[in-house]
């Protein structure tokens, strides 16, 4: 067996070392992610540059902190108090994203777990502040969209200049104690039944007014017609009707004298 040249071992060692260095120095950032460089022998987190998607070569003694920079969401259940001190459970979802260009500043000031350090406390504080303005009835029924908007505004104010942006707040469910919930549902049911009853009364009243107006119209029309029918007009109408009847081929007309009203008497018929 031939011995390897003396130069072979150092070359192999250097080759292996280069491969290890390349492996340690190459960093791949995936879709929707951003990277922040941590300089081991420098100032630590680099705050003026965010690395984009793709392959990057860095010094082997440095490291890359990779975080999602696209819009993402978290859901949580919070225990808050209403305006009258009643404990309410609010289930909500928050859509947020870190500021891409300031990802290094965000991580440097709040750490890699900035959701727990920054976002969660801000959302909880905003939810307590907003929900504390409303009664259980308002929270349960018609104020959901208003509450969402107000929480969003509160969170935005709390996170101002914190390099984290909240895009949307969704209140998915408001849970009240069973006794309070049943009381509210009973009250809402009574109000609905009352509204339906009032609607039926209004409808019946309008229908009665319609019938009264129609009857009054007919009475006025008959009154006007009666006032316009004189004896002379009635006689003329009677004569016209008599002539038409006498012209009928199916009857034989014999006129004898006149009736009490001055109209001819018609006798004979086939």
UniProtKB/TrEMBL annotation:
Give the GO biological process terms: proteolysis
- Signal peptide positions are none
Matching entries from SMART domains are given as:
PHB (SM00244)
Primary localization class, coarse: membrane
Q: Does the keyword Amino-acid biosynthesis apply?
A: no
The membrane-spanning stretches of this chain are 7-23
Q: Which GO terms describe its molecular function?
A: peptidase activity
Q: Which domain of life is it from?
A: Bacteria
Q: How does it sit in the membrane?
A: Single-pass membrane protein
Indicate whether Membrane appears among the record's keywords: yes
Tell me the keywords, alphabetical order.
Hydrolase, Membrane, Protease, Transmembrane, Transmembrane helix
GO CC list: membrane
Subcellular localization is given as: Membrane
The record's section on Pfam families has: Band_7
Q: Which residues form the Band domain?
A: 24-188
Q: Spell out the protein name for this chain.
A: Regulator of protease activity HflC, stomatin/prohibitin superfamily
In its UniProt entry, the species of origin is given as Cellulophaga fucicola
């Amino acid at each position: 067996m031939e011995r390897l040249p003396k130069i072979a071992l150092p070359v192999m060692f250097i080759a292996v070392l280069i491969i290890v260095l390349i492996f340690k120095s190459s960093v791949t950032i995936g879709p929707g992610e951003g990277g922040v460089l941590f300089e081991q022998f420098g100032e630590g987190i680099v705050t003026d540059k965010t690395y984009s998607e793709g392959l990057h070569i860095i010094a082997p003694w440095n490291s890359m902190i990779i975080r999602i920079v696209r819009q993402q969401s978290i859901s949580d259940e919070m225990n808050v108090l209403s305006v009258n001190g009643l404990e309410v459970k609010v289930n909500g979802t928050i859509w947020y994203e870190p500021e891409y260009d300031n990802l290094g500043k965000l991580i440097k000031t709040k750490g890699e777990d900035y959701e727990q350090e920054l976002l969660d406390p801000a959302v909880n504080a905003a939810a307590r502040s907003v929900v504390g303005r409303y009664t259980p009835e308002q929270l349960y029924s018609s104020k959901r969209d208003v509450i969402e908007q107000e929480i969003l505004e509160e969170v935005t104010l709390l996170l101002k200049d914190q390099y984290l942006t909240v895009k949307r707040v969704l209140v998915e469910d408001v849970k009240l104690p069973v006794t309070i919930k049943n009381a509210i549902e009973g009250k809402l049911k009574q109000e609905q039944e009352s509204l339906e009853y009032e609607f039926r009364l209004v409808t019946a009243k309008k229908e009665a007014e319609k019938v009264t107006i129609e009857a009054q119209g007919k009475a006025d029309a008959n009154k006007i017609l009666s006032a316009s029918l004189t004896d002379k007009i009635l006689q003329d109408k009677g004569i016209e009707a008599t002539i038409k009847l006498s012209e009928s081929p199916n009857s034989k007309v014999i006129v004898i004298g006149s009736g009490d009203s001055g109209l001819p008497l018609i006798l004979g018929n086939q």
